[in-house]
Amino acid sequence: MTVAPEAAEEARAALLELFPGGFEESESSGELLLAAYTDGAGELRLRTAFGEVRSEAVAPGWEDRWRTFHRPVRVGGLWIGPPWEQPPRDATAVVIDPGRAFGTGAHPTTRLTLELLLDCDGGSLLDVGSGSGVLAIAAAKLGFEPVHAVDVDPAAVEATKRNARCNGVVVQAGLADARRIRLPAADVAVANIALDVVEAIVPELATAIAITSGYLEGQQPRLSGFAHVDRRTRDGWAADLFRAK
Asked: What is the DSSP letter of 69?
């Protein structure tokens, strides 16, 4: 269905209530196009809520089309990609199955974090907000030990554990809200999360080095007790390396 820009938020809220699993949106001729993949019963619910709705059959295989968005990347000697891609022989492969909820490592913030991590000397590592586990698993592949990973989302913790097993590395992954409990000490901590969460959590960590990302190039964390050492940027995103004072 199409809606005018001024009605976009109300339409999104209504569609999210009908399809909490998600929907698709795009702009067309100044209007917002909203689409849901559903069956006849879902189409009826849409017509009841929105009135004018256009429907069309989708091509076979639509449910796997999301895979085309997950492409492998090279970061130094690391190759990060999904299991349906073949890693090159001259790279250390980090194979990540993202499911439909988590990335494989192609996002600029992940790549920037890995670039900074490659300059570190090793030791123990803590991944705060592990998602699919790509940073924790890459660290284990690089020789960091032990590697701890935490996330507030149970699905993320399970994805990290599953991907660690598939890569043959040991990552101690667990469910934790870093704003409420004290996390394990580590030589290096990585936090690819929102800026406000970075600023709230990292100063409380027992770590010598903190690598942070998840925010735009025009933003920079202010971390009490840490000195800024390095910054990398890509496509409008940024990552920073700090050392404890």
From this structure: G
8-18 vs 40-50: helix crossing angle, rounded to 10: 150
Its pTM stands at 0.76
DSSP string, 166-222: HHT---EEEE--TTTSPPPPEEEEEEES-HHHHHHHGGGS-EEEEEEEEEETT----
Q: Can you tell me the distance from the alpha carbon of 106 to that of 134, in angstroms, rounded to the nearest whole number?
A: 10
CB 55 within 8 A of CB 43: yes
For residue 89, count other CB atoms closer than 10 A to its CB.
7
Burial class (CB within 10 angstroms; exposed 0-12, middle 13-18, buried 19+) of 58: exposed
**DSSP for residue 61:** T
Split at pLDDT 50, 70, 90, the class of 18 is: confident
Q: What value does the mean pLDDT take over residues 200-224?
A: 96
Taking the C-alpha atoms of residue 123 and residue 128, their distance in angstroms, rounded to an integer, is 16
Helix-strand-coil percent breakdown of the chain, rounded to 5?
A: 30, 30, 40
Give me the helix-helix angle, 134-141 and 108-118, nearest 10°. Answer: 20
pLDDT per position as a tens digit, 48-85: 988 888 898 887 876 776 676 678 999 999 999 989 89
Whether the pLDDT of residue 205 is over 60: the answer is yes
Q: Is residue 104 within 8 Å of 134, Cβ to Cβ?
A: yes
Report which DSSP code applies to 108: H
Is residue 223 within 8 A of residue 210, CB to CB? The reply is yes
Domains in the chain (CATH in brackets) are 2-57 (no CATH), 107-244 (3.40.50.150)
